[in-house]
Amino acid sequence: MGNGVREGQVDFKRQDAEPVTPAHLPSEDKQEKKKVLNSLMSGALAGAVAKTAVAPLDRTKIMFQGESCWLSQNEAYRLIYRTYLNEGFWSLWRGNSATMVRVIPYAAIQFCAHEEYKQLLGSYYGFQGKALTPFPRFIAGSLAGTTAAMLTYPLDMVRARMAVTPKEMYSNIVHVFIRISREEGLKTLYRGFTPTILGVIPYAGLSFFTYETLKKLHADHSGKSQPSPPERLLFGACAGLIGQSASYPLDVVRRRMQTAGVMGHTYSSILLTMQEIIREEGLIRGLYKGLSMNWVKGPIAVGISFTTFDLTQILLRKLQHSTNVER
């Protein structure tokens, strides 16, 4: 018994020497789970608030993109007014329930995936804990958008159908799924999927890249670690303007392919759809139809989305910190 401790006795010195983790302190796994949960909740709220705010413009844009004749921006706003007169105020939000069913998981997945991809790329490129350089910043955004789009695409298809059809045709979201599956086949739920992914890569990549870059430039030049809410809205608006302008033609192609079954058209591929649009309507008037409206809607929606996400994340962290302190 060279250590001076008899059998049955407790070696208090040895116990004191071992690091003891208090039960109330969260482990790394718990912290990571909380971080993911916070991102999912913040992203879901961000998407819901942003899309609801611009729902009337969003519905009009989809109707715009589905038409083969040229409509000016003034005609678009007159279309909103006529819809209000003929179908009532709440008809301007027709299809918004389908949008919420899609956008809540889409935004939750996209924002959460972006946080995870930033962390993974930061580890890979050696920027752990620091802002990513431009190329990884773009890649993180593109991967986040692609991940979200792949997992929620059928819901986007349903939303597009509800936006361009009278309410008598589809009574609810489930009815859209049933009718499309029965009358057009399950493959129809993924019509327009390829142009969606091709459009998401530049859209999400440039949106997240622009927003993160502007926040970094702001921190470098102002000396403040966090921008104010109005500054976040402005950065998000710039991100939306750049991202949506870059990917807009593919967005038009996607909408045409999604709504072809109810609009009397048949589009078999991206290139053929583009060719038909350009031949019948022209390059600018066809592939950029409704873009001027998107320059109003897009920056507002993306600005609200990014700002809501960031502020919700900050609020949740503060609440969790205060809860841990109280314990």
From TrEMBL:
<dbReference type="GO" id="GO:0055085">
    <property type="term" value="P:transmembrane transport"/>
</dbReference>
<dbReference type="GO" id="GO:0005743">
    <property type="term" value="C:mitochondrial inner membrane"/>
</dbReference>
<keyword id="KW-1133">Transmembrane helix</keyword>
<dbReference type="InterPro" id="IPR002067">
    <property type="entry name" value="MCP"/>
</dbReference>
<feature type="region of interest" description="Disordered">
    <location>
        <begin position="1"/>
        <end position="31"/>
    </location>
</feature>
<feature type="repeat" description="Solcar">
    <location>
        <begin position="132"/>
        <end position="217"/>
    </location>
</feature>
<keyword id="KW-0812">Transmembrane</keyword>
<dbReference type="InterPro" id="IPR018108">
    <property type="entry name" value="MCP_transmembrane"/>
</dbReference>
<feature type="repeat" description="Solcar">
    <location>
        <begin position="227"/>
        <end position="315"/>
    </location>
</feature>
<feature type="compositionally biased region" description="Basic and acidic residues">
    <location>
        <begin position="8"/>
        <end position="17"/>
    </location>
</feature>
<comment type="similarity">
    <text>Belongs to the mitochondrial carrier (TC 2.A.29) family.</text>
</comment>
<dbReference type="InterPro" id="IPR023395">
    <property type="entry name" value="MCP_dom_sf"/>
</dbReference>
<keyword id="KW-0472">Membrane</keyword>
<keyword id="KW-0999">Mitochondrion inner membrane</keyword>
<keyword id="KW-0496">Mitochondrion</keyword>
<keyword id="KW-0677">Repeat</keyword>
<comment type="function">
    <text>Mitochondrial carrier mediating the transport of coenzyme A (CoA) in mitochondria in exchange for intramitochondrial (deoxy)adenine nucleotides and adenosine 3',5'-diphosphate.</text>
</comment>
<feature type="repeat" description="Solcar">
    <location>
        <begin position="34"/>
        <end position="120"/>
    </location>
</feature>
<dbReference type="Pfam" id="PF00153">
    <property type="entry name" value="Mito_carr"/>
</dbReference>
<keyword id="KW-0813">Transport</keyword>
<protein>
    <recommendedName>
        <fullName>Mitochondrial coenzyme A transporter SLC25A42</fullName>
    </recommendedName>
</protein>
